[in-house]
Design a protein that fits this description.
By secondary structure, the chain is α+β, with helices and mostly antiparallel strands. Helix content is about 20%, strand content about 30%. The protein has one domain. It is built from 2 helices and 5 strands. Strand 3 and strand 4 form a beta hairpin. The chain starts with 13 loop residues before the first strand and ends in a 5-residue tail after the last helix.
Length: about 90
């Protein structure tokens, strides 16, 4: 399992877990899916997942299943069916 936190604090369950635009910046599809599964298992009451669904960047290069922006960062833009399919966490 990859590192899901930049701090030295342990990762523990919480009532609310927020993945606000986190999945868009994970380059590896397997790591992206694992991050979502771990977040789902950590959320006791509510899991919030936000993803950007439209492209809208001018200067980009394709990489894996996303793009590299002009600033050199990875972005994965989700289509509605993709984000819905990711909700099957069983």
């Amino acid at each position: 399992m990859g590192s899901f936190s930049s701090s030295n604090n342990p990762i523990v369950p919480a009532d609310i877990v927020n993945l606000g635009f986190v999945l868009n910046v994970i380059e590896d599809p397997n790591e992206r899916n694992e991050t979502l599964r771990v977040a789902f298992n950590l959320a006791r009451k509510l899991l919030i997942v936000s993803v950007r669904v439209e492209h809208g960047l001018d200067s980009t290069a394709e990489f894996n299943d996303g793009i590299i922006t002009s600033k050199g960062t990875f972005r994965r833009f989700m289509r509605k069916p993709t984000s819905r399919n990711m909700s099957n966490l069983s």
